[in-house]
Write a structure and sequence with these properties.
The complex is a heterodimer of chains A (about 80) and B (about 375). With about 80 residues, chain A is mostly helical. In chain A, about 55% of the residues lie in helices and about 0% in strands. Chain A is built from four helices and one strand. Chain A is globular. Chain A starts with a helix and ends in a 7-residue tail after the last strand. In chain B, the strands form five sheets. A five-stranded mixed β-sheet of chain B has the order 2-1-3-5-4, covered by helices on one side. In chain B, strands 10, 11, 12, 13 and 14 form a five-stranded antiparallel β-sheet that branches. In chain B, strands 15, 16, 17, 18 and 19 form a five-stranded antiparallel β-sheet that branches. In chain B, strand 8 and strand 9 form a beta hairpin. Chain B is an alpha+beta fold. In chain B, helix 1 crosses helix 2. Classes of the chains: A mainly alpha (about 80), B alpha+beta (about 375). At the A-B interface, strand 1 of A face strand 4 and helix 2 of B. Strand 1 of chain A pairs parallel with strand 4 of chain B.
Chain lengths: ~80, ~375
């Protein structure tokens, strides 16, 4: 699981987390969870996002996933709250 | 399409809307007209009607706001999150908020208000995001020149409110399916060793890294020529791809549309005014000639002399026997011409002037 975040640098980790919080309900399910559980949740939400956008489902924030996350978009979540 | 969780919908179909304030980026009249057009997209395909009111509480309140604007979903400044809307319901239900820190436009430049408004109103009526790349309800902003509902969007709104009262049921364009045996193409070109197939607003691209054929909107690369391409060819010597639509054409290099385009085919290539558009085109590297296919004839253009060769046009049936009288698209690969007409593909050897194989048009997509 650490691989999911150690491959990308600083502000990208923040961006990934913010994106998943805003559009894939990260953390709203896992309030006050331990670090490990948060990583598991992050990987699962990443997979959900990659599947939605037809990307390779790896659970890791690779370049094409980051590219989609940087695109301007609608503020409504992609999954039901 | 995806209906919002819990299937929220408006119980009455004659809805009201009010524009509470205006962005300084556009004249008020333009904003009024843009919002009205965005509502029309949805009323054209459903029994819904929308009436503008100028005071009090409307079903759908539209406003331009900054950062934290009191709805627990703040904006974060330019880019990223452009706007949001609330599902049908009382109070804030149905309302649309645009981020005033974006630059709102009524052209290709970021961000086109008509496109974003039409999308947000989908949420106001009960739709969620679609994962169909061409749908209006797709979450990321990809503006392809015109704003229209896709069949996916029409199916969604009609699933909630039923069909429109229009006698002729409107149908929207479909996202092409690469393995549809009836798939035909508008244009095809090589591009830096790859092959790009164009259909409506989409491109399909095969490359060795992925087994899957990539399908996306042309607007992702070149918003200015985002739909209705008719011909395309790569002039590899200058790393240029030329894209034709009507009597105009653009030259692109990678993502960039080269300055000074569009140009017209009459001045650039010497076509007579009787030629209204090009069906297909291909550059032959060995000879430095480009072949243009128009109706049942073809022309040959010398890229180095920059002039049309004498004695043209000629009949396609004479110059390329066996491929028929009309070409939809053509590209060159490994010295052979691949001609496409409807669902057929002919592999043609320009040296021996013989057809080597006859295949389905979508044989390149590993179906």
């Amino acid at each position: 699981f650490p691989a999911a975040t150690s491959e990308i640098q600083g502000q990208d980790v923040e961006m990934v987390k913010k994106y998943l919080e805003n559009y894939y309900n990260l953390n709203s399910d896992e309030k006050k969870t331990k670090k490990t559980r948060e990583n598991i949740a992050m990987v699962e939400k990443l997979k959900q996002m990659q599947k939605f956008f037809g990307l390779k489902v790896t659970g890791k924030p690779n370049a094409e996933t980051l590219n989609v996350m940087k695109q301007a978009r609608c503020g409504v979540p992609d999954v039901a709250e | 399409f995806v209906l919002t969780e819990g299937n929220p919908r408006w119980e009455h179909t004659n809805l009201t809307y009010r524009i509470e304030n205006y962005t300084p980026d556009l004249p008020r009249a333009v904003v009024d007209h843009t919002i009205e057009k965005a509502f029309q997209l949805w009323s054209n395909v459903s029994p819904l009607t929308f009436t503008k009111v100028f005071k009090g509480q409307a079903d759908i309140m539209i406003s331009f706001v900054w950062r934290d604007h009191g709805d627990n979903s703040p904006f974060y400044g330019p880019g990223g999150n452009l706007a949001h809307a609330f599902q049908p319901g009382p109070g804030i239900g149905g309302d649309v908020h645009f981020d005033e820190e974006e630059r709102w436009t009524n052209d290709f430049t970021d961000y086109n208000l008509y496109h974003v408004a039409a999308h947000e109103l989908g949420h106001s009526l009960g739709l969620s995001h679609s994962s169909y790349i061409g749908s209006l309800m797709y979450p990321t902003y990809i503006f392809s020149g015109d704003v229209q509902l896709f069949q996916d969007d029409i199916d969604g709104i009609q699933a909630i409110y039923g069909p429109s009262k229009n006698p002729i049921q409107p149908i929207g364009p479909q996202t092409p399916r690469v393995c549809d045996s009836k798939l035909t193409f508008d244009a095809i070109t090589t591009l830096r060793g790859e092959v790009m197939f164009f259909k409506d607003r989409f491109y399909m691209r095969v490359n060795s890294f992925y087994p899957e054929t990539e399908l996306d909107l042309i607007a992702v690369f070149w918003p200015v020529v985002a739909n209705g391409l008719e011909a395309a060819y790569e002039f590899a010597e200058r790393d240029e791809v030329r894209l034709f639509k009507g009597h105009k054409y653009w030259a692109v290099r990678g993502y960039d549309v080269l300055p000074g385009y569009p140009r017209d085919i009459y001045r650039s290539f010497g076509f007579p005014r009787s030629v209204k558009n090009i069906d297909a085109a291909v550059f032959e590297e060995d000879t430095g000639k480009t072949y243009f296919f128009v109706g049942n004839k073809y022309w040959r253009y010398d890229e180095y002399k920059r002039s049309m060769d004498a004695g043209y046009p000629k009949l396609i049936a004479d110059g390329f026997p066996g491929i028929g009288n009309k070409v939809d698209a053509v590209f060159q690969k490994d010295g052979f011409f691949h001609f496409f007409h409807k669902t057929r593909q002919y592999k043609f050897d320009p040296k021996t002037k013989r057809i080597l194989t006859l295949q389905k048009a979508n044989s390149w997509f590993n179906c």
